[in-house]
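Data deposition worksheet. Section B asks for the primary sequence of the deposited chain exactly as it was used as input, without tags or linkers unless they were present during the calculation. Section C holds the resulting structure in token form. Section D is free text for depositor observations; keep each observation to a single sentence. Incomplete worksheets are returned to the depositor.
Section A, Depositor: J.P.
Section B:
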Amino acid sequence: MSIYEDTDPTLPGEGPVLANAARADADRYRAIRTAVVTLVFCFAPALGMAQSPGAAGANFGVGATVLASAGIAAQTLPQSLEVSASDVERGFVEVPNTVRLAVTSTSRDGFALDFWPRTTAFTAIIVRGAGPDASLDGNGGTIVQRGRHGVAMPLLLGFRFNLARGTTPGIYPWPVQIDARPVTRA
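Section C:
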């Protein structure tokens, strides 16, 4: 799920905000659970599970498979990035602790964050805050968070964008799109 989909400009915060993905996942889980319980009670008599008068109880098994999912909600995400003359001289733009995300993952194996460049003004990105610093080339890349799962897990990210030759000072659209997906064992 991308943080750039289903934005709601009326919500507070800097940049696009995704409608609460965690709430949607919880609602989906509740709906599945309710459907399973309803089916069990509706079909138990038809399956011969009804007890004769005076019986103490019945045993039956119920199973459900929930597909792994992952999503992110941007709590803060800049819409643009300013490149100054000193940034051009230095060759990079440092953006510390700017992006706040809430990640939801139902996969016990964890989740992956995919980083997709949205401009050619940068040749590489260093992502900070999702474990050890990760260096991604101009094509983007993936950071895997193994074993992390839960609802609305906070993640604070900082970036270093290495400038491409010929990049001039100015204001650029936010240079990277971030998507989340579940990690599953093959």
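Section D:
The first strand starts at residue 70 and ends at 76.
Residues 105 and 149 are 5 Å apart (CA to CA).
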